[in-house]
Structures are given as C-alpha cells and as structure tokens.
Design a protein that fits this description.
single chain; 7 helices; 8 strands; 21% strand
C-alpha cells in the first residue's frame, strides 16, 4: 500500500439528478453502447426535473439551482459584491452570480469554462499557490464571498475520495481566510463523513455562524452537503462561533 498523498485536482465527475417530482421514468433507447454506470447516469439525466429546468432557463448546469436555494435562504450575494467561484465549470454558478447583481465575479476551474461576461474566468489548478495569487489580483481587493463547488476525481475507494474532498475544502477555506473581508461569507461543497466534522469545527472558529445546507437539487441519496459560513471574523481571530444546525 502506498502512503503517497493523492494530488488534489478540481475536476468534477458528472452529477445525476433527483427522482422526486416527475412522472413516468424514461429509459435509453440505445443502451448497448453504454456501460451500466454510464447508462444509469444518462437515465437519471433524462428524468431529472432540474436538468430540464436548467435547459429551459438557459443555465449551463443543474447546479445553478443549488446556489439559488442557498442564496435564497442566506442572502449571501449582495448587489455589487466581490465573489470568487472555485470550481466554476461549466459556469452555472457564474450565471447565478451575474443575474443576482454581484459586482465583480472571478471563477477558476481546471476544466475550460466558456466565457461569460462580465465574469472573469481563469483556467488552472486552484491548489497551485501561484493561481491563488492571480485570483486575488483579479479581484483587486478583499472578497465578500468565496464559493467552492470543488470536487476531486473519484477513485472508487470511499476513504480516499473522502480525504480528497476534505483536502479541497481545507484549501478553499485557507484561501477564504486570506482573501475574505471581515463579515464575509464562505460556502463549500462537502460530503458527510468523519474528517468533515473536524473541518466544520475549524470553520466555527473563523466565522460567526456555520450552517449545513442540503439543497433540494442535491440528490436525496447523495452524501453531498454544503457548509455555509457567514460573519467572517478575520484571519487573526479564532473565538468560538455560534453553532447553527
């Protein structure tokens, strides 16, 4: 068994949809050319109401509805806000940020993201320190909101995949600590598991409130949750936060 730490990457696997709120399920007509896992994912996409709604409203991905629900609950995106979107491809969250009046939006992803003016998009590995410096330079000042929809390439080994996502959350949280203005907000994708609790405990020392949010657009059977942190205390403080379920 190797002890080498896997390199953190930002590429995200496809995410299927929810089985709630639709009629008769549609099946693939030509399934012979697909593996069972690919066939299952494609069938979920065909029958996912969020996929259909995203297509109807012109969103690049169903993930747009996750950010919409989070912001409707917490009111994070103020008009004129400076926002950094980590793991922005294909651009669904960027679209929501622009629609909701964010003043300066900068996104980054390892994958190519089609231009979406007036948002600015960088392509590269967020975990590289040089790229993080470029992100802050693009913003040109303190950030009001840092969003992270980062997820690693999956290996199929649950323990390894969990450690990788935890590593990405920690990297995103460190970036937020250095870039956020006092009072700022940080939202990160997470997956329920042992090490996630330690990350949440660390965030509660840096933010006034930390909430766990499960958007309706997240599949019911998925362990995916979002950690939503508000009231950034500043990088030099670590007093206990108000626990919020």
């Amino acid at each position: 068994m190797t002890t080498e730490t896997p390199r953190k990457r930002m590429v995200r696997p496809p995410v299927g949809g929810s089985d709630v709120g639709r009629g008769r399920a549609e099946r693939l007509r030509t399934a012979k050319s697909h593996s069972p896992s690919s066939q299952a994912w494609l069938e979920r996409q065909l029958n996912d109401p969020y996929v259909a709604e995203a297509r109807a409203r012109g969103y690049r991905s169903r993930a747009a509805f996750k950010l919409i629900e989070i912001d409707d609950r917490l009111h994070l995106i103020r008009r004129g806000a400076r926002v950094v979107d980590l793991g922005c491809a294909p651009g669904g969250w960027l679209q929501v940020l622009v629609e909701r009046g964010a003043g300066l939006v900068v996104g980054v992803d390892l994958l190519e993201t089609a231009p979406l003016a007036p948002a600015r998009v960088l392509q590269g590995d967020f975990t590289e320190p040089g790229l993080q410096a470029r992100l802050l330079a693009q913003v040109g000042g303190a950030v009001d909101v840092v969003l992270s929809d980062l997820a690693p390439n999956t290996t199929g080994h649950r323990r390894t995949d969990h450690l990788r996502i935890v590593g990405l959350i920690e990297a995103a949280a460190d970036f937020a600590e250095h870039g956020l203005a006092p009072g700022g907000a940080f939202v990160a994708k997470a997956f329920q598991g042992g090490e996630t609790a330690a990350v949440i405990a660390s965030l509660r020392r840096r933010f006034g409130q930390v909430r766990l949010v499960k958007p309706k657009a997240s599949r019911a059977g998925s362990a995916e949750i979002y950690v939503a942190c508000t009231g950034f205390r500043g990088s030099s403080t670590c007093s206990p936060a108000t626990p919020t379920p």
